[in-house]
Design brief:
The protein is of the alpha/beta class and about 450 residues long. The protein has 16 helices and 20 strands. About 35% of the residues lie in helices and about 20% in strands. The strands form three sheets. Strands 7-8-6-9-10-11-12-13-14 form a nine-stranded mixed beta sheet. A six-stranded mixed beta sheet has the order 15-16-20-17-18-19, sandwiched between helices. Helix 14 links the parallel strand 18 and strand 19.
């Protein structure tokens, strides 16, 4: 049984153990940063923040059953065991690196500019047809979320699927050093975080840092339809996926079954078989391909892979469809990039009914922001929307791109409040409404108001 103890935690992190001798070797399993999520036996990480200091919740964590705390200072009036370190964030990363090394199971890393979380969920769902799988919860894919995920490994897990998200150079190295993936899935190289990464060459350079932390026996599963990834040599075995004929795994005969499902033929040198993913979005056929490739590498049959993909469910804020007698809401407001918004508009255009898109700012695009927002507006025109609603400073460029190419039936709002006030006048019975923007735009508020209108 793999386990940590307060003393091991102190030894690994170079910290100081505080507590009585008999508690040095108590069993510690799993780690959390939110005291409300503590389960008995957990390590509670006291993360100091500008607004909330985790140290203030140590007592609550112990009351909930925490076995130990990781802190940056003395915890007053605490008799339970804890470890003091210089930085709890750096310490938890050290623990994640150490703990991952205790497990000899396939670890699949997922990264890319677009589709990371969807690919992660599809890979995990596929593998779940045979294996006990640990996966990154939601999109906890940063320097804190990754080690917390790794520390959730138990002897019951037979594979791990870890999402890795970055926004600057060097960050992938930090994550990949912890994850040390045996298989790395890279979805796309697209215009995201350009304010830090500069251009697509910079995006490629930052993402591919992950290959430096893989063994020679490692395998890269890359999007062969992406011009950057098609040409890229990871220095180890490379498997490609896409719709192009030259890919190792291809999707053919894609059929979008309204908002309910997407089906396609999976074609490879080994076989051809049809799969169904019970969710909305034509892009799911493409994202199912790396899941199939991973499944094959781990010895799964076509039947097992088919069953695993059929068990897929989207996570919150990503193409979630809510349907009643009054309208259909496609809640895709968790995040947005030019590539993902265009894909969502394409999927929306294939549906029957009055199609409405509510779009907001796509952030962190640097000097390319104006042009990329205009491109999205032009794409909205090409997909013949019935109504385009734009909200936000940069979303004005989406509106301009739509109307500038001849689009009619568009509205622009500077604020969410103004938009929400007009929703009852803009949305009609039986509309199909897509809501999408960068996460910090808070468009979930708009989706919630639409959901209330559906009652």
């Amino acid at each position: 049984m793999k386990h940590l103890t307060p003393q091991i935690i102190a030894d690994i992190t170079g910290g100081e153990y505080i507590g009585c001798d008999e508690d040095r070797n108590v069993h510690v399993q799993g780690a959390v940063r939110d005291h409300r999520e503590v389960a008995p036996g957990n390590l509670f990480i006291c993360i100091p923040g500008a607004r909330v200091d985790g140290h203030a919740f140590a007592h609550s964590a112990f009351e909930a059953g925490a076995a130990c705390c990781l802190a940056e200072r003395v915890l007053m009036d605490v008799t339970e065991p804890y470890v003091i370190v210089k930085s709890t964030l750096e310490a938890v990363k050290t623990l994640g690196r150490y703990y991952r090394g205790l497990f000899n199971i396939p670890v699949i890393g997922i990264t890319g500019s677009v589709g990371k979380t969807t690919a992660k969920e599809l890979v995990a769902s596929t593998l779940g047809a045979r294996f006990g799988v640990l996966k990154t919860p939601e999109n906890l894919n940063n320097e804190l979320g990754v080690p917390l995920t790794l520390l959730a490994l138990t002897d019951q897990h037979e594979a791990a699927v870890i999402e890795m998200g970055i926004s600057d150079f060097g960050e992938m190295s930090v994550l990949a050093e912890m994850v040390r993936p045996d298989i790395l899935v890279m979805t796309t190289i697209g215009p995201a975080h350009l304010d830090a990464l500069g251009d697509l060459d910079g995006v490629l350079k930052a993402k591919t840092e992950a290959f430096l932390y893989m063994q020679a026996s490692g395998i890269g599963i890359l999007n062969g339809d992406d011009e950057f990834l098609r040409k890229y040599d990871p220095g180890l075995r490379k498997i490609t996926f896409g719709q192009g004929r030259g890919n190792d795994f291809r999707a053919e005969n894609i059929c979008v079954e309204g908002t309910a499902a997407v089906s396609c033929d999976i074609v490879s040198a080994q076989s051809r078989f049809r799969v169904t993913i019970p969710a909305f979005g034509e892009h799911l056929a493409m994202m199912a391909l790396p899941a199939v490739a991973v499944g094959r590498l781990l010895g799964m049959s076509d039947e097992e892979i088919t069953r695993g993909l059929k068990a897929y469910t989207p996570v919150g804020g990503r193409s979630n469809v809510k349907k009643t007698g009054s309208l259909t809401l496609i809640d895709d407001c968790y995040n947005a990039s030019p590539t993902s918004v265009k894909a969502a508009l394409k999927s929306l255009s294939g549906l029957s009914g009055r199609r409405v898109a509510i779009l907001g700012d796509m952030l962190e695009l640097g000097d390319y922001a104006d042009g990329l927002h205009r491109e999205v507006g032009e794409a909205a025109y090409q997909h013949a929307l019935d109504l385009l609603i734009c909200c936000g400073d940069q979303a004005k460029r989406i509106y301009d791109g739509f109307t500038g190419t001849g689009g009619i039936g568009a509205r622009y709002f500077e604020t969410k409040a103004a938009l929400i006030a007009e929703l009852p006048k803009l949305i009609e019975k039986d509309d199909i409404v897509l809501v999408k923007a960068s996460h910090s735009m808070g468009f979930s508020e708009i989706a919630d108001h639409l959901a209330d209108m559906m009652i």
